[in-house]
Design a protein that fits this description.
The complex is a heterodimer of chains A (159) and B (198). Chain A is α+β, with helices and mostly antiparallel strands and 159 residues long. Chain A has 5 helices and 6 strands, in the order ααββααββββα. Chain A has helices at 3-22, 26-30, 49-57, 59-66, 152-158, and strands at 33-41, 44-47, 78-89, 92-102, 116-126, 129-139. Chain A has a 6-stranded mixed beta sheet, sandwiched between helices. In chain A, a hairpin with a 2-residue loop joins strand 1 and strand 2 (44-47). The relative contact order of chain A is 0.17. Classes of the chains: A alpha+beta (159), B alpha+beta (198). The A-B interface holds A 2-5, 7-8, 82-86, 96-98, 100, 113-116, 140-141, 146, 148-154 and B 37-38, 40-42, 44-45, 47-49, 51-53, 56-58, 61, 109, 111, 113-115, 135, 137, 143-146.
């Protein structure tokens, strides 16, 4: 396997993860993780695919409470992932990826940019498929959930 | 003239015009070698590492993304070699807090972000044209705000099996004299790549 092939498959996983998240597809979301995968995000740590699925089922309600459009309805939240530093070693990989989010929660339904942060990921190839073994979502606008101050790519390279 | 005839005539005229355009101004399309995906993946990784290094003030990692004789040009001028690049960038970084700060005057968390890249590879040399945008927590009440955008005009070298930045020109559409264009930057890149083969 070449780095390009691994990187392409990992990038596809990250896109599938975001579509599953933004369209409330809890099954597809949970399937992005290994059976013993871990999700560490603003509302806690979920361990194991079943716990992650249960967490994902509550996303719609919890996120709808935080992000609203100007009429008070749940906003259309979209996550975007941009540049990624990805390291691959055999069947293990690591990612530091920059994300930001946008909604239609601005005045009169205009675009609003609530926050940005980084994904700090550990991935594993299981039966030929790359999956998240651990995803930590850092958000620079949430106290206690910020990344750094050290360059997160250094931690990934030292792993 | 019935309306549909007029529309058909207009459509034919457009067809003729675009047909003529495609003959006279047809850009030479790049050819992609067998290792293009591998080279591109490594160059994308390099560009991501560059950004994380700059945003977390990791100057050792930052200068290592450049070839030893690499060159960086941005608003402050041109620096050649890793030591000169480090000096220029650390000095700029210490001053940028004046422009990007939170409401209480602390330096903002500035993030550089890259979006699409056109990357051209010829052997151990490559060229890139990449759209970047920057964002920080310097909006009202320390909310997120997008700052400026521009492009990177890059040349890369493969040295000892690894890609490095040979030359990076940081253009910013919000700084007078540092704008890109008006020509399509990808055309310039293709011309440079073609010239390098002669």
């Amino acid at each position: 396997m070449s780095y390009a092939t691994d990187r392409a498959e990992i990038e596809d996983l990250m896109a599938r993860y975001l579509f599953a998240m933004d369209y409330h597809d809890a099954d597809a979301y949970a399937e992005c993780f290994t059976e013993d995968g871990e999700l560490d995000w603003a509302m806690g740590v979920a361990r194991g695919r079943e716990a992650i699925r249960a967490e994902a089922l509550s996303f719609r309600e919890r996120i709808g409470e935080i992000f609203k459009d100007s009429s008070g309805a749940p906003a259309r939240l979209r996550h975007a992932v941009c540049h990624k530093a990805i390291r691959v070693e055999g069947d293990r990989a690591w990612n530091t990826g920059f994300w930001f989010e946008m909604t239609n929660g601005g005045p009169d339904g205009s675009i609003l940019l609530p926050s940005f942060g980084v994904y700090e990921d550990e991935l594993a190839r299981v039966e030929g498929r790359w999956l998240f073994k651990r995803r930590k979502i850092c958000n620079e606008f949430l106290p206690g959930r910020q990344s750094g101050p050290a360059n997160p790519v250094r931690a990934m390279d030292a792993a | 003239m019935p309306r549909f005839v007029a529309r058909a005539a207009l459509a034919a005229a457009i067809l003729t015009t675009t047909g003529a355009l495609s003959m006279t101004a047809h850009a030479k399309q790049p050819t992609y070698g067998k290792t293009y995906a591998e080279d591109r993946a490594e160059i994308e990784d390099l560009m991501a590492r560059y950004l994380f290094a700059i945003d977390y003030f990791d100057w050792d990692s930052y200068v290592e993304t450049f070839a030893p004789d690499g060159e960086l040009t941005f608003a402050s001028g041109t620096s050649k070699g890793r030591d000169a690049i480090r000096a220029a960038v650390t000095s700029f970084s210490s001053r940028i807090g004046q422009f990007y700060h939170t409401e209480d005057g602390k330096p903002a968390k500035l993030r550089h972000v890259v979006l699409q890249s056109s990357i051209r590879v010829e052997g151990n040399r490559a060229w890139g044209r990449t759209l970047w945008v920057e964002m920080a927590n310097h909006g009202p009440g320390d909310t997120m705000k997008m700052g400026t955008y521009g492009i990177y005009e890059d040349q890369f070298s493969k040295i000892g099996g690894h890609w490095f930045i040979q030359k990076r020109n940081v253009l910013n559409e919000f700084l007078k004299g540092r704008n890109s264009g008006p020509n399509n930057p990808v055309r310039d890149m293709d011309a440079l790549a073609e010239a390098s083969k002669k």
